[in-house]
Amino acid sequence: MTIGIDKIGFATGRYRLDMGDLAQSRGVDSEKFSKGLLLDALSITPITEDIVTLGASAANSILDEKDKASIDMVLVATESSIDQSKAAAVYIHSLLGIQPFARSLELKEACYSATAALNYAKLHVEKHPQSKVLVIASDIAKYGINTPGEPTQGSGSIAMLISQNPRLLELHDDNVAQTRDIMDFWRPNYSTTPFVDGMYSTKQYLDMLKTTWAEYQKRSGKTLADFSAFCFHLPFPKLALKGFNKIMDKSLPDAKKEALKANFDASITYSRQIGNIYTGSLFLGLLSLLENSEHLQAGENIALFSYGSGAVAEIFSATLVDGFKSQLKTNRKEELESRQSISVADYETIFFEEDALDEDGNASFADYVTNDFSLVAIKGHQRIYEAKDGQENN
């Protein structure tokens, strides 16, 4: 029995901030963002979008009624949680109409936890071959106006349906993980934005990539020559490029190195237009690779590097299955181009708007552009969600 990713979906904010506009507003050379970070635009979400609406919309784009009847676990990985107790997975389970006898929970470890969720899902399907697991990575990266992290903000959600006999990717049992107790990026409960030691975090990312990759090769016996592509966690694409260069085997034939670089470029296509989406960044890179590479074929292997500050890293691999291209969209770039462009002033107003609760815990919101679901109000401290068909959930 093979187990892996059967379907993959994506949703992001419906507003777009051009990096050139942000650079001009902040008084810096636009190439600091376009070349220094390899970022061209950011996805911006209003207060009516959160990890629930993004996650539900990403999943809604791939699930049919048969899937909803077979899913018996919903896992949401995030570091943008909306509640210290109730899991976002419970809200999403309800919004999607998944059958009631399902386990729903939320996982956290910075940007790494979606990989842990994927492992959990795979183990569950091994034990229960007829079941399906919905894994969602959903986040809104928010650092603050005119801060070092501001140019790497972004928002989005990846949804993956895990099953036996997958039609996209078969996951392997070659995972190698590493944990280090470090303080490179963290957000205490009392802070709405994270604390970041940027240079230190970059060094840790690259060193954990190097050492985990060495251990992976030692345990698996595989080398870079065994893979057609290598996907990376993408805090910003330029860091992943540094990682790609660090693990490159210079003894490989030039044609192989060129093919790997072409697939790397395909893997950062979407992130260049969206920014950092935390837990979903690695899998957005995977989706971008699959939908933009001109050379991938069934039977080829892909390596993946997951990293979450604090820190946990993991390297694992997957194989493309026959017919995988039929599971992919062909108009994703057009969808990204259809986002509404906004000025820097509008971005500052929309992105940083906060709940204005009255004494009874109620709040209403302006009518912003969203995906398939939106947060329409807070009533008595309860978040009220609505699908575009007008059905209300809380």
Radius of gyration: 20 Å
The CATH homologous superfamily of the largest domain is called Thiolase/Chalcone synthase
Helix content: 25-40%
The CATH first-level class of the largest domain comes to Alpha Beta
Biggest sheet layout? 10 strands, mixed
Number of domains: 2
- For this structure, the CATH topology of the largest domain is Peroxisomal Thiolase, Chain A, domain 1
Which architecture name of the largest domain does CATH use? 3-Layer(aba) Sandwich
Mean pLDDT: 97
Strand content: 25-35%
Stretches with pLDDT under 50, minimum 5 residues: none
Give the overall form.
globular
Query: What's the helix count?
Result: 13
Distance between the termini: 39 Å
So what's the oligomer here? single chain
Q: Structural class per helix/strand content?
A: alpha+beta
Using DSSP, what is the number of strands?
19
